[in-house]
Amino acid sequence: MHYQLNARRLLCPMPVIRTQDKVNTLQAGDTLEVVCTDPGALNDIPAWCRINGHTVLSTRREDDEVIIVIEKGHGT
Question: Which residues contact 24 (CB under 8 A, 6 or more apart)?
Fold first, then answer.
């Protein structure tokens, strides 16, 4: 399944914490689109994914937002 997380107007480390909390509720293979306004999330969330075995499917900027799509890994 595909889910969305609104992490707009949150500053580091909250986008990563909210992403972690949401990913913990997902099944392996589910995807999550995280929408942030903190530009640091463009580095922080992919780093968190690498450490925790999740896959970053895409990252992009749209205006003042950062959109990151991740897939939950099978090992967590």
Answer: none
